[in-house]
Amino acid sequence: MTHDRLVPFIVAVALFMDNMDSTVIATSLPAIAADIGTNPLTLKLAVTSYLLSLAVFIPMSGWTADRFGARTVFRAAILVFVLGSIGCALSSSLLHFVAARIFQGMGGAMMTPVGRLVLVRTVDRRELVNAMAWVSIPAMIGPLMGPPLGGFITTYATWHWIFLINVPMGLLGIVLVTRYIENIKSEVRERFDFTGMALSGTAVAGLTFGLSVAGFEIVPWPIVVLIVGVGLVALGFYIAYARRAPAPVLDFSLLRLPTFRASLIGGFLFRIGVGAMPFLLPLLLQVGFKFSPFQSGLITFTSTMGALIVKGAAPAVLRRLGFRTVLVSNAILGGASIAACAIFTASTPFALMIGILMIGGFFRSLQFTSVNALAYAEVPVARMSRATALAAVGQQVSLATGVAVGALTVEMVVRLKAQATIMASDFPPGFLLVGLIATSSALVFLMLPPHAGADMADRIPSTARTSDPRVE
What we know:
The protein folds into 3 domains: about 1-180, MFS general substrate transporter like domains (Growth Hormone, Chain: A, Up-down Bundle), CATH 1.20.1250.20; about 190-245; about 250-470, MFS general substrate transporter like domains (Growth Hormone, Chain: A), CATH 1.20.1250.20. Helices cover about 75% and strands about 0% of the residues. It has 18 helices and no strands. The protein is globular.
């Protein structure tokens, strides 16, 4: 395996652990709660501590990678994640479990942005699209494969193995990172922005946590509004502060770059639809159609087949059509595939469900690959770490927003109907709304210049490139 293929594979394995772990315990909460002496509702709040930890520590990932080197930080992040996983498996009380999940989230917060930073700093820019196709797959597979895998492990083994399976994968990742990834550091040493970290951490944590629990009736609405409100106020203070800060932890001045702005804003809208799918679809199948968790898992997992197919197709498609054309058309098709789930009923043939989900998986994966690669088309090498941190924060908040929008839509329909329980007919408005939001991202991508990201898609003559396409 060549270096340009091996590095994306190493990063993808680490990101797969992170994406899988955030959803794999969903179906195992009752078993974990019974074992550690609490109730599933309380444990659900404890699980959100992982998301909270992610939100707080992601902003500092760029600075740590610049100061200590991407390899050092990436390797340490995997180690922290593995130790947190072991802590979760050994937990005997709610307090221990929460502490272990927070510690695990610290590792996860560094793995995603620093993993991407490793790619953009070590992979040739003309190969970045193909590399991003590799690392986009975990984001598709993890949330969909997590619940059925968690249920399978809990049923046929014990819930502890949900976390212990991370140990051999993590140790292998540490060995591969040590051997094959360079420890690239920033030549300019900047002081850590403690004020910015406090403001941005509060903003991202408030928004992510508040949106994650909205619509689930596990936190009173006044508390949810307060949490989100604190996040918005902190965000306002941070934006004002960042304008005069010499080295802000989240650099919003990157939004002046057309390709990064389109990637962040357009990607945010599209991910709202994608973020709602792992919540809405299993709930529709299990609660609405009364399918078993295993049947639900088999159906939802089919969308990953489309994601796997697109891995090899993305570079050729982008080379032929260009980023703007692909992103605009794909946003419409991807959003339509999400909205198409609104036609599902208990009598819908499995073949039709699987076909829609597989096609949707193709379009969504192609969109992820294109959006993630386009983000770095105009970013100078010296600002790559800041770009990865801001992109990771945007992704985290957008996915939480998607879950919140999906949950709130279903809840509103149930209340309007004055029903005591959720029915299958309550879900179509949710799919239609998040599908429409995802489709609206096409308007953002439509404003891109016609030749945006042309060098990354290999659509310009080689004589027009610099000797090192990674240098701006």
